[in-house]
Design goal:
Strand order of the largest sheet: 1-5-4-2-3
Low-confidence stretches: none
Number of domains: 1
Distance between the termini: 30 Å
CATH topology: Oxidized Rhodanese, domain 1
Strand content: 5-15%
Order of helices and strands: HEHEHEHEHEH
CATH superfamily: Rhodanese-like domain
Largest sheet: 5 strands, parallel
Oligomer: single chain
Number of helices: 6
Helix content: 40-55%
Number of strands: 5
């Protein structure tokens, strides 16, 4: 079930979506299956990541992505697909890192909730 968000949050997410490209869950699944050249980034909180994440994803939470992305992914031409729980935080993060100079950014609409709804696989890492 989709979370009910505040009107202000909904508004800034809609504004961000006008500035970035969104892709569907099925688009992301096809790119993973083809082993396309892109980096899949989970922008959720640590506890959400540990509950399960998309295969081949790396974790750069929304709270740190602007601070850490240049160290983790220095090439601003890298193809990036961001996702979160429902597609809101990833849209905000995509718009934010676009301002850092990243050119090929997409946000996965529907997020992990839609991924799960389509019975697609999740990965889990052992907690350290």
């Amino acid at each position: 079930m989709a979370k009910k968000h505040s009107p202000g949050f909904e508004r800034i997410c809609q504004e961000a979506r006008k500035l970035i490209k969104e892709v569907s869950v099925q688009d992301v699944k096809k790119e993973l299956d083809k082993k396309s050249d892109f980096v899949l980034i989970d922008v959720r909180e640590d506890n959400e990541w540990h509950e399960g994440h998309l295969p081949q994803a790396i974790h750069l939470g929304k709270g740190i992505i602007e601070r850490d992305i240049e160290d983790r992914i220095p090439n601003t031409d890298t193809n990036l697909i961001l996702y979160c729980g429902g597609g809101y935080r990833s849209a905000l993060a995509a718009e934010s890192i676009k301002r850092l100079g990243y050119k090929n950014i997409q946000s996965m609409a529907g997020g992990v909730r839609e991924w799960k709804d389509q019975n697609l696989p999740l990965s889990k890492d052992e907690r350290k």
